[in-house]
Amino acid sequence: MHIGILQCGHCPPELQPHVGDYPGMFEKLLDGHGFTFASWAVCDMEFPNSIDAADGWLITGSRHGVYEDHPWIEPLEQIIRAIYLAPKPLVGVCFGHQIVAQALGGKVEKSDKGWGVGRQEYLWGNEVVALNAWHQDQVITPPKEAATVSSNKFCEHAALLYGDRILTVQAHPEFGREMMQGLINVRGAAVPEARLAYAQQMLDKPIDNARLGNDMADFFKASRDWQGAAE
């Protein structure tokens, strides 16, 4: 199965020699499931010619807000709506989680709860899942097609499921310890000191990245009547 990655931002250049850029992080997260990958830096106005360029799609995080006035936001939303209607399986992470919600009629804002950074625990079904987060924007009102499948007190809509078509998550299953330490070092000035200290303290606590990677892979490969030969 061929996965197209729509890259909505770049890893800070100071960190790229150590952790690479966002598409590579997702390729590593989804390694071992038989996928092939191609990526388009939509944040640099690089778009696929067709949604048929991939069997399934993944939208990355970004330092930008989905409500900001960038020339690539509206074309990306058009692609999201086309993928949803096609339909093809789509996964969104952080900014990807938010832009999918906005494109399909939901509302995204800077949360009055401020920054969520570092290891966070989420109720996911009957389980508690721990993932790294780095955000202050949140989905405030999900689209009517979306069901909230994960939450905590800080982030009410931490993961959304749009039937068998789209799965999105606010946290970063692609971020490991090195990436989080790097963000603390190079982007921590924007975060309140207490929350940054919490993120630093949590760096060596266990997280469930592999679990989420498997869930995302299973979502891509799930048998669907409409998927046909794409699987």
TrEMBL record:
Signal peptide: none
Cellular component terms per the entry's GO annotation: cytosol
Keyword Lyase included in the entry's annotation: no
Keyword 4Fe-4S (UniProt): no
Glutamine amidotransferase domain location: 54-176
Superkingdom of origin: Bacteria
Pfam family, one: GATase
Keywords associated with the record: Glutamine amidotransferase, Transferase
Molecular function (Gene Ontology), one example: transferase activity
InterPro entries: ChyE-like (IPR044992), Class_I_gatase-like (IPR029062), GATASE (IPR017926)
PANTHER family given in the database record: GLUTAMINE AMIDOTRANSFERASE YLR126C-RELATED
Protein name, as recorded: GMP synthase-Glutamine amidotransferase
Organism for this UniProt entry: Vannielia litorea
Record lineage: Bacteria, Pseudomonadati, Pseudomonadota, Alphaproteobacteria, Rhodobacterales
